[in-house]
Amino acid sequence: MRPITAEGAVQATGSRLAIRADHAFDGLANKPGGALVLCADGKIVGVEPAAAPAPEDWPVVEYRGATILPGLIDCHVHLCADSRTGALDRLPGYTDEQLGRVIETSLRTQLAAGVTTVRDLGDRRWAVLDWRERVAAGRVGFPSPAIVASGPPITTPRGHCWHMGGEAEDENALRAAVRERAERRVDVIKVMASGGATTAGTDVLACQYTLEQLQTIVEEAHACGLPVTAHAHGLPAVIQAVDAGVDGIEHCGCLTERGIEMPDNLLARLAGSAIVVCPTLGRKPGGTPPPAFLAIQQRTGFTWQDRQLMAGKLHRAGVRIASGVDAGINDGKPHGLLAHAIADLIAGGIRAADALASATSVAAQACGLDDGKGRLHPGYDADLAVVDGNPLADIAALTKVRAVYLGGRAVIPAT
To answer: Which of 53, 56, 232, 264 has a 20 to 30 Å separation from 109 between CA atoms?
Structure first.
């Protein structure tokens, strides 16, 4: 069959499709010579060199000068947040209809940026889980990225993000909070181990729970078969999260009054564990940080470059790094910014292939999806992104999204 041009990709909507690109990243490494990715019934069924002929009677879409890679995975988003400063503060005032519109807009923006899976780490009273049920029931009128969800984060009374509805403190309440999330079929338990910049009255440098309380959450979650990831900005909270046996740490700022500090023994413990760190890098180019963030910088003296270099130090020590933006929380961290988080890892000294893996294969592991997402490999979901240029040579290419596929069907441009 005569190849279909990239501009004609929207016409190829059958159950079989071959996609050819001059460059390819398979989720782990570059594939020299590009790739011909064969998709059937929503899955990848073959990955051949770009020069290979397509099977007879298969439609072929060709992307010259472009790179095909697994659809990106943003491991830290807030779909209920509208990408404007004060986004989380506005949550209690939304009606269900308004919240639904924000979630839809957030997902559409992520998809346009090549993100085919998101991990939502804090919604308002189960709104994202309710949305995911609507997607499963076919009651959402657009192709949605896959959603991994935590529900409302567990936090102390009036603690960070308390208005999302996850306040719990004594042992019985903490265990009940975990069990409720398990019953609602969350994928991960999110706990606020430290305060946060977006919640007045909380301290980013201080722990919100005792070690015993955090251990209770981890123990109950693991009994329910669920991983735990801990929001931790301050160094004491990072140490406490490691001591408690969490599975992931968000931000991992290691902030002190003297700036960012990473004790050698803590670095060794992180490197020797299975903990996945999501440093939540990525910010809008040229944007002005919110006043609360600037206040923390002034208080501690850390810089953005310090955060980039910390991520590089963690990676070089052997800590698994997954990319996520903390997307949606303000106008400096809007949805659809994952490419900039990956670029920040490279700026911190991480090689391009490893930085890309942090948003594909490693991100899939962090989300518990490594048996079906994050790789160009037979048997995996045909969730794919195509970008102009070669991000392994110039990471800015990742911002030039040319096409996005969900289950082997082109959704950007829309079919």
So the answer is: 232
